[in-house]
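Aim 2, interim progress. The first record below pairs a target sequence with its structure tokens.
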Amino acid sequence: MKKLLILAIAILMFGNLSAKPKVFSVQNVAIGGVDVVAYFTIGQPTMGLNNYTTEWQGAIWQFSSPENLAMFNKDPTRFAPQFGGFCSLTTAHGASIPINPMAWTIHNERLYLFVFETARDTWLMNPDKLIKRANLAWSTELSK
């Protein structure tokens, strides 16, 4: 019940998907500067550096190494977080909420980010169902 209350408050505070950009960014830097490839290569969030950047989906993406930058440039959709890097759980409920890069998981070789670790834990109880809901919400709102 507490998790649902937190989710409801977050949705009310941050609104729906239609008012949000395609990628969660802070000052136009995607995912607050976290190297999204590092989630896959070293298994943890790692800050990117200004030396290793690329532009994709209207945002600047930073990486911690030239190797990670090259991997992302070769296949950005493979490494980019789902739902533009907004919270996967709240996206499934029709809202795009900024994330905490420490709350994450990789499921079926895709990166999912969350606003809180409790949101991730709730999502992990039924990820396939929630992925379907989030995909529908995300594609419907982006097509407007």
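The second target in this work package is listed in the same format:
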Amino acid sequence: MPFRLRSSAPINYKLFFLKRKISVKNLFSAHNLFIYTNKKVMVENCKYCGKDIKDLRPTQKGQHVANCVMNPNFKFTAEKRSKSRLNTQRLKNPLIKLKLNCLNCNKEFEVEVIESYYKRGRYIKCCCKKCAHKYSSNFLDKNKKKVKRCKDCGKEIQVNILSSDNIRCDNCRKNPRGCDSADESLKFNKRRCQEFKNNKYVCKHCGEEECKRPEVCKLFRQKHNVYDVYFGFDINKKGTNEFYNEFDRIVNMLKEDYFDKELSLTEIANKYKMNYQTVHMVFKKIGIIARTISEAGYLAAKNGKGNSDNAVSYPYKSGYHINWKGKEVHYRSNYEKEYYSILDEKKVNYEIENLRIVYYDTQKKKFRIAIPDIYIKDMNEIIEIKSKWTLDEINMNDKIKAYKTLGYNVKVMIGEGNKNFFKNAKEIIY
């Protein structure tokens, strides 16, 4: 029966396609093509989800309707499709049931494996994981050899018994893509990092035939480079004479942050919005030696980055005291708290653990950071409050030398007893 449009006139497909100079092999394809070209006959919306599908081909429309989530038969068709796929897979690669003997305990067990996997040796050879571990660690001679064929040339080679089947001989591994000699293979590896300019091969990065600093060019062989993404490396300078100068600019920038500004690795990572481990990797490749833990702690104490309020290294009473200005200050012993109240009565402007002074410790033979207990700015005076039992005289003398060289007035309060500390305290002024 001839296909009809919404009008009652029948359609002659031959005349329809001859006018448009289109060759159609059979009537069925002509019918589908006619439906696709004439949009009046097309279904405009999906009958399940209501999506607009008027611009799709007939096959695409059928796929949409069959796979539509709102379709009530969607689950049934999906299960049917998965079963048919499994059947076709099993026709190509059928399952085989085998009875094998365990390599470790010689116990017979049954295994089900795909036929192609069995031919390649990819199947379970032991009855359990315990036997597999014992066989691989104890009963297998690791020096034993097996004969395999090269993946590229097919040559028989002796390899270790634990090596995989995907292996190449020495000639194919050293000479990639069929290079005749080792020199040709080296040239081939170089060509991957070069480009052809002005009738010669030059490096993609520095723009020279032979790299003056090949260790720098190797850093830029990755597809997504760290130096371009995070450190603002000028891409336009790649392949020019200014390539090394741009790289040195970034290295000097990082050295300035790390050594001159004394930033930590975490601070540098936050500055450039990158990961801490990436910064550590970049420093290692550039040749910047990271600080030790003691050096990092020294700089943290020097720059006041460490939170000394929560770090109580001795078992004395500590807490917070509100001074005569209403400001909260930290104390590390009852002696300090008692002295704060004396200064509050006199309404003295004092600061707590505000200074960071470098001094040389003669006992440990290294530079350390001293944090004075109290500093009175109006009198330019440093006050150290110590107990008779905790005082280290040699260490205190080292600190006082550093204080005096910087021009500070120094007062040391030494006392004993838990109550009325400052009545019996010994006051030493330097």
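The two ends are 120 Å apart (CA to CA). This observation will shape the mutagenesis plan for the next reporting period.
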